[in-house]
Amino acid sequence: MENLEKLRTEIDDIDVKLTRLFEKRMETVLKIGKFKAENNIPVVDNKRAGVVVEKAVDRLENKDFSGEITEMFSNIISVSEATQKAIFSKETTLNSYLKSLFTMPHEKTKISKETKVVYQGVEGSFGSVALSRYFGDVTVKNVEEFEDVFVSLSNNEADYSIIPIENSQTGSIAEVYDLFRKYRAFVVGEIDLSVTQNLLGIKGAKLSDIKTVYSHMQGFLQSKTFLQKHKNFQQIPMSNTAVSAQYIAAENDITKAAIASNEAAEKYGLATIEESINTDKHSQTRFIVISNKLEYDDTSKKISLSFTLPNISGSLSRVLLIFAKNNLNMLKIESRPILNKNFEYFFYVDISGNLSDEKVKTALNELSNNTNYFEVLGNY
To answer: What residues does CATH 3.40.190.10 cover in the chain?
Structure first.
């Protein structure tokens, strides 16, 4: 028993020294954290952390403790990083991008008949229906391609545009995400539209007459099960479902059909050969409203972000922890490849929140310090 007490006393003496050294280390950690905050240097440095652990193992005389000292220093590094991140949250001044964002005029524009809104497609398309339901009576312009929508905004030919970004059945529309990289635009609103695809033909056409079907690729994808039952149909993609309906009406060919909406059938005088052919009978398409300026108010509750990450282990999990730590619910995450960089990605994330909230500002500031590229796409 005396030997045990002696050993415990020895441990206590060692713990006193460890505590003093730990305190000294943390004081230095605070200084480093403040320096990083003032110079906008990311808190996490995985290369440095690896070197610290490696040096600790090398200094061991008894290498049997390699695992234990690795675990101990890994924990110390985690505590140090958490302490420095706290400094960022409290003391870091916003970087220039976030400063300009939070001070940017963001009052919502009053919608009137003179408000110019652009959409992709023609009358009778889902885009035109979504536009009418979201905006009501406004000045409308239509264009042929998704990119033309962004070009119209960039050239100040429109105040807003409305464009599909995802479908509940077929997923995200990759081209739209990629266009956000090419053009500067802000998301200022959204609307979910129930989508019913129909097989449309000229009056008198029957299912047995059809040889060729025209539609947008989304129309084909959403009607995949129906089309698998009719593998004899030649599928010709077009820029828009309603454009395909317009084409069928002009062709007046009993062997040709379009996959499009009931609105398109009515607009172009077509007959419905098969109704509701989309696989998911509850299919919805999410349309976003975009502008060339930021707009939000106190009712805005969703924030869309874009960023890239260091190509190192754990970089995405650290970003996700930022949202969790600040009690921000992540609603969606999407990734798109970075051109000329194999297996590196742009991430697109939707989170709950308002840009005027302090916890949002704290989270975005920390996020910007843990990403290679960072941009707020909108608050709506």
So the answer is: 116-195+284-291, 200-273
Which of these, 142, 138, 136, 137, lies nearest to 163 by C-alpha position?
142
User: Is 285 a known active-site residue?
Assistant: yes
Question: Computed from CA positions of residues 243, 246, 247, 253, in that sequence, does the dihedral angle turn out positive or negative?
Answer: positive
Alpha-carbon radius of gyration of the chain:
29
Given the residues 92, 285, 308, 371, the one annotated as active site: 285
State the Cα–Cα distance between residues 366 and 23, nearest whole angstrom.
26
pTM of the model as a whole: 0.72
Give residue-wise pLDDT tens across range 165-217: 999 999 999 999 999 999 999 999 999 999 999 999 999 999 999 999 999 99
DSSP-based three-state secondary structure for 14:
helix
* Right CATH for 2-91 from 1.20.59.10, 3.40.50.720, 2.40.37.20, 3.40.50.300: 1.20.59.10
C-alpha to C-alpha distance for 335 and 344, rounded to whole angstroms: 9
* Superfamily of domain 116-195+284-291, CATH level 4: Periplasmic binding protein-like II (3.40.190.10)
Domain 200-273 adopts which CATH fold?
A: D-Maltodextrin-Binding Protein; domain 2 (3.40.190)
Domain 96-105+299-379 maps to which CATH number in 3.30.70.1050, 1.10.1380.10, 3.40.449.10, 3.30.70.260? 3.30.70.260
- Do 272 and 265 contact (CB within 8 A), yes or no? yes
Query: Closest by alpha carbon to 249, among 234, 233, 265, 237?
Result: 265
Judge whether 139 counts as a catalytic residue: no
Q: Catalytic residue among 287, 307, 346, 374, which?
A: 287
| pLDDT 10s digits, 94-147 | 677 888 898 899 999 999 999 999 999 999 999 999 999 999 999 999 999 999
